[in-house]
């Protein structure tokens, strides 16, 4: 022991490492506040259920609830299966083969994302339903019923397959053709190669895309309601709206929330046990496109028919109803109010959510190993799992205790914040990862406080991601239906609600104009996202 | 194991220390990045912390700047305690300028805006920034964006930005590592001149011995989280206290030999064992060996020609060494002027005019010091 280390003896007691690597109190407070807000829906749901435990238990344990659970899970599973069956071939055909026009088709194939599922349902009903366009043309009703399980499943699958497509496409591009060659070299046929070599590589991407669709199907309210399929959301809504059975609605909402959480947990659990994505070969060779040969035209017909149903049909049908409505003197006036309110709601939601996402993303990126980071992230992501209807009901229960907040615009914005926070966090996080920590340290060293550094260095440099997150929230908010339907304050007019209420009463001509306006508004943030994504 | 840095006589005016670190420690997850940083830097001095990568030198710099807080120890800047077990002054209130290894220039600002960033709230902000740009020879580049500059220019912007607020202490983290070799010497000289001109106390961190030896007033050698030796460049080079220092700084032939009668025997002669007890490491610089008429006979086996000089690999002839064979083989490297042409196979005689450095190697632990 040297003289000097002995001299440093008095300082030797362990002191917790007080480094700038530790998050500042302000950051922890801000991020925790966001996480606490995310706790509001589950807490109030539980509180509401425990107010009348006997009634709630009856509602949960009823035979009809079990049927409902099985029916909804079957619905979600069928939607996911069909969406995957549509998305996987399109991803492969447009990225790996010599399909004619594949560049354009690849872009168009993601576009149905802009069509809300309730608009899709309205198009389906007004085309194929009793008294719809086809029935008009043929002079009699179609031989099959559009309503019910298969109708709802088909509509939802057609308008949600882009989630699987967007998730699986990068994985298809990254497929190492040498692995396929190796497999064929061992004498395995195409099918065995696909099953044993390709599919395992795509599985992580397929399962995360599939998870999004499964959650979407569990949570979607508009399409099942219009297609008259009794999924959880429709049953909960009817209980709440028509019979004022709030305890029953809360109980069923809790069950639905649990289902969604179990699905998320299942995905996290299986992902944790798989390691395929970790062993991607470096320097994957640029693969020559696979020649489709005589399968070219059938393949093109497949992609073409998907796009016809998902894009051309909605545009044509909405256009038809618009003209017919205008010809019949359908009023245009109210449209502006609804557009203004929709923009106001989405704009506020985008701004508030982007601001709330920043501290959580900062904490996750700059202090990933801090003990507080993980729980805050998990809480902030609960909105990802909770259906909009569930969050909206929970806020109604909460709002009753909140005086002036109840039935205010703030309440609606809060619902949007809770639902779409994960979107903004994800985008912000990506851009924060690209801001080198040394830039922030340099700024501190030049005499600026943490807050000042955030304002003058970090936020400007991450602005692209923050903006992309805001655009994503904006896009999603415009289309949001159940929370808007339940929480919109009196006098707040929204395009989504207009489409829904007109469609549910089969006033298709009345629904066409707001629906088209909705599509138009969604394409603006989509374009922003596309542009910011390209410039990177 | 001893870590007893020297405190040589104050080279400049006897007075205030610019920096005084006492037993600073920084631990992350129970491992010490810096185990014991004890160091004094005098006003106006240019001190280089030199050491292999991972020795804790960058963390030391971050401790001084305030980007890390010490787990133990105390730190004074210009006589004021900025970190100990009670206080922690955040980086923005330490008045320390830092040039980062990656320069950390703000990409969303112009050169001038970068330099002005540290001058917020000053009335003469623009004037000071322009002056700093002039000092670093960047007057013409104020309106440029950072990405339009060359590596050398970026480094000077970083320097101008750090100097503009007139800090009391300038910290440089591996300032030349991102420059290509051809540029390094020139930039090094420029930086040296600028720092000298402003008279600012400077601590530079590097793993490049040439850098440290050529521009520093004093060099602090760091290994395994501790300062092992502090001294003038000549002192560090000529009198390394441990084998760590000897082997890292400059080229060295090392013979491990047993001590007998307070004497060590090598192919180049027997020498006083000095502090060594049972085992000794005899350190012989290649340039200290001379060709001579009388000396130990040997054969050239390989020649590395460098233009300004050459390095010969020379094997002692069987039986020529007094006590061969030696543990590290019986070859040595000899650095000579390149004028003499010596080819493999040629026979030479070697001698050592000055006694070599002898360090204790009783535990055969290269780091074992006195």
Secondary-structure topology with pairs:
The complex is a heterodimer of chains A (536) and B (370).
Chain A: H1 3-7, H2 25-51, H3 53-61, H4 63-96, H5 102-110, H6 117-128, H7 133-138, H8 149-174, H9 177-185, H10 190-219, H11 222-226, H12 232-241, H13 246-273, H14 296-327, H15 334-366, H16 373-380, H17 382-385, H18 388-399, H19 409-433, H20 437-445, H21 450-461, H22 463-479, H23 482-487, H24 495-504, H25 508-535
Chain B: E1 17-28, E2 31-42, E3 46-50, H1 57-65, E4 72-77, E5 80-83, E6 96-99, H2 111-116, H3 125-135, H4 151-163, E7 169-173, H5 181-198, E8 201-206, H6 209-215, E9 218-223, E10 226-231, H7 233-238, H8 243-248, E11 253-258, E12 263-266, E13 269-272, E14 279-284, E15 290-305, E16 309-316, E17 331-337, E18 347-351, E19 357-360
Parallel strand pairs in B: 3-8, 3-9, 6-7, 7-8
Antiparallel strand pairs in B: 1-2, 1-4, 4-5, 9-10, 11-14, 12-13, 14-19, 15-16, 15-18, 16-17
Helix pairs in contact in B: 3-4
Along the chain, the helix and strand elements of chain A come as HHHHHHHHHHHHHHHHHHHHHHHHH
The helical percent of chain A reads: over 70%
Q: What's the helical proportion of residues of chain B?
A: 10-25%
Radius of gyration of chain B (CA) equals: 24 Å
- Alpha-carbon distance between the two ends of chain A: 55 Å
Structurally, the number of domains of chain A stands at: 2
Main CATH class of the largest domain in chain B: Alpha Beta
Give me the side-by-side strand order of the main sheet of chain B: 6-7-8-3-9-10
Q: What is the CATH superfamily classification of the largest domain in chain A?
A: MetI-like
Distance separating the two termini of chain B = 8 Å
What is the count of DSSP helices of chain B, taking H or I runs of 4+ residues? Answer: 8
Assigned CATH class of the largest domain in chain A: Mainly Alpha
Q: Give me the CATH superfamily of the largest domain in chain B.
A: P-loop containing nucleotide triphosphate hydrolases
- Beta strand % of chain A: under 5%
Query: What is the largest interface, and how many residues per chain?
Result: A-B, 32 and 47 residues
Unreliable runs of chain A: 1-20, 275-284
Named CATH architecture of the largest domain in chain B: 3-Layer(aba) Sandwich
């Amino acid at each position: 022991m040297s003289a000097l280390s002995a001299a440093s003896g008095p300082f030797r007691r362990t002191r917790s490492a007080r480094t700038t690597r530790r998050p500042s109190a302000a950051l922890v407070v801000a991020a925790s506040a966001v996480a606490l807000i995310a706790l509001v829906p589950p807490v109030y749901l539980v509180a509401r259920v425990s107010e009348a435990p006997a009634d709630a238990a009856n509602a949960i344990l009823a035979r009809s609830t079990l049927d409902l659970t099985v029916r909804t899970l079957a619905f979600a599973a069928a939607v996911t299966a069909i969406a995957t069956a549509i998305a996987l071939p399109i991803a492969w055909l447009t990225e790996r083969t010599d399909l004619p026009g594949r560049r354009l088709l690849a872009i168009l194939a993601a576009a149905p994302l802009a069509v809300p599922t309730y608009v899709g349902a309205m198009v389906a009903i007004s085309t194929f339903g009793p008294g719809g366009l086809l029935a008009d043309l043929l002079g009699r009703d179609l031989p099959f019923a559009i309503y019910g399980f298969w109708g709802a499943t088909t509509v939802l699958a057609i308008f949600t397959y882009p989630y699987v497509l967007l998730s699986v496409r990068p994985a298809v591009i990254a497929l190492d053709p040498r692995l396929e060659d190796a497999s064929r070299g061992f004498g395995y046929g195409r099918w065995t190669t696909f099953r044993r070599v390709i599919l395992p590589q795509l599985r992580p991407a397929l399962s995360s895309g599939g998870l999004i669709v499964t959650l979407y199907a569990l949570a979607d309210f508009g399409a099942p309601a219009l297609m008259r399929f009794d999924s959880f959301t429709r049953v909960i809504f009817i209980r709440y709206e028509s019979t004022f059975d709030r305890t029953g609605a809360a109980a069923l909402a809790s069950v639905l929330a649990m289902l969604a959480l179990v699905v998320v947990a299942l995905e996290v659990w299986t992902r944790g046990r798989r390691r395929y994505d970790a062993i991607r070969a470096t320097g994957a060779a640029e693969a020559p496109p696979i020649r489709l040969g005589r399968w070219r035209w059938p393949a093109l017909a497949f992609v073409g028919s998907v796009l016809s149903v998902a894009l051309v049909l909605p545009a044509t049908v909405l256009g038809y109803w618009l003209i017919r409505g205008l010809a019949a003197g359908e009023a245009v006036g109210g449209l502006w109010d609804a557009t203004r309110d929709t923009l106001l709601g989405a704009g506020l939601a985008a701004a508030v959510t982007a601001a709330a996402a920043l501290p959580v993303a900062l904490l996750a990126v700059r202090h990933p190993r801090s003990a507080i980071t993980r729980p805050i992230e998990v809480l902030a992501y609960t909105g990802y799992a909770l259906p909009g209807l569930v969050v909206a009901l929970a806020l109604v229960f909460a709002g009753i205790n909140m005086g002036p907040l109840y039935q205010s615009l703030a309440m609606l914005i809060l619902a949007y914040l809770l639902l779409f926070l994960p979107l903004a966090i994800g985008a912000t996080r990506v851009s924060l990862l690209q801001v080198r920590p040394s830039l922030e340290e340099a700024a501190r060293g030049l005499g600026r406080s943490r807050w000042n550094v955030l304002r003058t260095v970090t936020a400007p440099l991450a602005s692209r991601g923050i903006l992309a997150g805001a655009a994503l929230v904006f896009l999603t908010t415009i289309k949001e239906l159940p929370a808007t339907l339940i929480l919109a304050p009196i006098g707040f007019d929204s395009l989504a609600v207009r489409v829904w209420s007109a469609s549910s009463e089969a006033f298709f001509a009345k629904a066409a104009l707001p629906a088209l306006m909705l599509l138009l508004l969604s394409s603006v943030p989509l374009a922003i996202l596309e542009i910011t994504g390209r410039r990177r | 194991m001893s870590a007893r840095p020297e405190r040589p006589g104050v080279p400049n005016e006897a007075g205030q220390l610019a920096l005084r670190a006492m037993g600073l420690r920084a631990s992350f997850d129970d491992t010490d990045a810096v185990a014991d940083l004890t160091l004094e830097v005098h006003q106006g001095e240019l001190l280089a912390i030199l050491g292999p990568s991972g020795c804790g030198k960058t963390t030391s710099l971050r401790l001084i700047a305030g980007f890390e807080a010490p787990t133990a120890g105390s730190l004074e800047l210009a006589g004021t305690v900025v970190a100990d077990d009670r206080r922690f002054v955040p980086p923005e209130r330490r008045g320390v300028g830092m040039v980062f290894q990656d320069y950390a220039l703000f990409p969303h600002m112009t050169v001038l805006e970068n330099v002005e960033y540290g001058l917020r709230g000053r009335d003469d902000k623009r004037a000071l920034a322009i002056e700093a740009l002039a000092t670093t020879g960047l007057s013409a580049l104020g309106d440029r964006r950072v990405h339009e500059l060359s590596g050398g220019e970026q480094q000077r912007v970083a320097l101008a930005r750090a100097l503009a607020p007139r800090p009391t202490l300038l910290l440089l983290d591996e300032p030349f590592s991102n420059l290509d070799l051809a540029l390094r010497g020139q930039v090094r000289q420029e930086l040296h001149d600028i720092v000298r001109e402003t008279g600012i106390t400077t601590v530079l961190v590097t793993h490049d011995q040439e850098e440290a030896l050529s521009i520093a007033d004093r060099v602090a050698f760091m290994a395994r989280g501790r300062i092992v030796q502090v001294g003038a460049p000549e002192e560090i080079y000529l009198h390394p206290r441990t084998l760590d220092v000897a082997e890292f700084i400059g080229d060295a032939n090392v013979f491990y030999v047993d001590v007998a009668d307070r004497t060590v025997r090598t192919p180049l002669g027997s020498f006083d064992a000095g502090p060594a007890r049972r085992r000794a490491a005899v350190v012989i610089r290649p340039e200290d060996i001379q060709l001579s008429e009388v000396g130990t006979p040997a054969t050239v086996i390989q020649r590395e020609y460098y233009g300004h000089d050459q390095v010969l690999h020379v094997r002692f002839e069987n039986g020529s060494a007094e006590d061969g064979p030696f543990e590290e083989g019986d070859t040595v490297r000899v650095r000579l002027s390149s004028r003499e042409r010596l080819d493999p196979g040629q026979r030479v005689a070697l001698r050592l005019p000055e006694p070599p450095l002898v360090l204790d190697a009783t535990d055969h632990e290269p780091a074992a010091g006195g």
